[in-house]
């Protein structure tokens, strides 16, 4: 019965898609979307175009940078945790001791573009979006129905039936810990700051908005090599924005850095079940990065966890 269910669930998510893998090129206490111009954010890990600093960049500015992803036609920024607009995500730490935080560099960070067959328009110029809730403290703050946010052991064991789905696994993973997060798939062309999820609106965009491909972050952390002794109960892992063992505050940013010609190709990836590479004038979709992305503002801000906390305090006082 369990197998049958899994098959159906998977069939439901097999939709037109493509993916791009990225290397993290910077960890810094900046958030170009939430705190533009300031070094007061919690720590974010950055992926994508390195033309990202504390200020919110335009698509054209991002396109002058060097991409850390494998597709030379995509100079978007992706962040986990809060940095700027390339992509950014919150930085994950292994809490080895009370004041000993070891950064966990994601073994794999992939951006998937899904439901492309349903998209009406490409990402508008200068479009940026935030997904997730950086201040979430409980499952109720997460909205998994839209964001899809959940943490699990990539290769088992599966323990989500016994815990909140946005907590980190309470059992030692046999392989990587994985987390996914979906981005809004509707935007108002005349006011790109107005965006929404079809899943929050009965499966369609609110009136006045157009549907864009749905971006999904997928991050895999190799915690087995870092924590070979494993764990039972809350794992000794902490997001820069949250508490030990909690994954609720995981969030991401996306700033559009796609070149127009490649976005036209992106919109052609409409097969319901076949992966397609996105090529463009800058090269093949899986060409890989060769330019050496780096921090463009190395003397400002910090990549040190303790120092980032001090800088956040300074701003609060
Ligand atoms: C984000 O989390 C906070 C809790 O800190 C909660 O009050 C708020 O409603 C959440 N936002 C959303 C959009 O769910
Ligand atoms: C999420 O979706 C499920 C299934 O459609 C529904 O039962 C549940 O009430 C939804 N949860 C929220 C918080 O909207």
Automatic annotation (TrEMBL):
Keywords: Signal. Residues 31-258 form the DUF1996 domain. Residues 278-302 are annotated as: Disordered. Pfam families: DUF1996 (PF09362). Residues 1-16 form the signal peptide. This is DUF1996 domain-containing protein. It comes from Podospora australis.
């Amino acid at each position: 019965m369990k197998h049958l269910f899994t098959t159906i669930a998977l069939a439901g998510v097999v939709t037109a898609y493509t993916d791009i893998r990225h290397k993290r090129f910077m960890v810094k206490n900046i958030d170009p979307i939430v705190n533009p111009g300031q070094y007061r954010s919690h720590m974010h890990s950055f992926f994508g175009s390195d033309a990202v600093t504390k200020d919110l960049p335009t698509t054209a500015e991002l396109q002058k940078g060097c991409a850390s992803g494998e597709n030379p036609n995509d100079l978007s920024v992706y962040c986990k945790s809060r940095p700027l607009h390339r992509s950014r995500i919150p930085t994950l730490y292994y809490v080895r001791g009370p004041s000993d935080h070891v950064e966990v560099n994601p073994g794999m960070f992939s951006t998937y573009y899904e439901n492309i067959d349903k998209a009406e328009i490409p990402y508008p110029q200068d479009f940026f979006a935030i997904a997730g809730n950086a201040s979430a403290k409980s499952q109720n703050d997460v909205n998994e129905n839209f964001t899809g946010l959940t943490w699990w052991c990539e290769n088992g064991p599966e323990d989500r039936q016994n815990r909140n789905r946005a907590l980190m696994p309470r059992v030692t993973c046999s392989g990587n810990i994985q987390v996914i997060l979906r981005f809004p798939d509707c935007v108002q062309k005349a006011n790109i700051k107005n965006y929404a999820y079809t899943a929050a609106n009965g499966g369609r965009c609110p009136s006045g908005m157009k549907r864009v491909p749905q971006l999904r972050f997928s991050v895999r952390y190799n915690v087995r090599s870092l924590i070979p002794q494993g764990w039972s109960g809350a794992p000794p892992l902490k997001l820069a924005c949250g508490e030990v063992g909690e994954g609720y505050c995981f969030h991401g940013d996306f700033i559009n850095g796609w070149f127009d010609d490649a976005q036209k190709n992106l919109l052609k990836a409409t097969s319901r079940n076949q992966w397609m590479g996105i090529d463009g004038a800058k090269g093949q979709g899986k060409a890989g990065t060769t330019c050496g992305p780096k921090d463009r503002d190395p003397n400002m801000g910090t990549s040190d966890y303790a120092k980032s906390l001090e800088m956040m305090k300074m701003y609060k006082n």
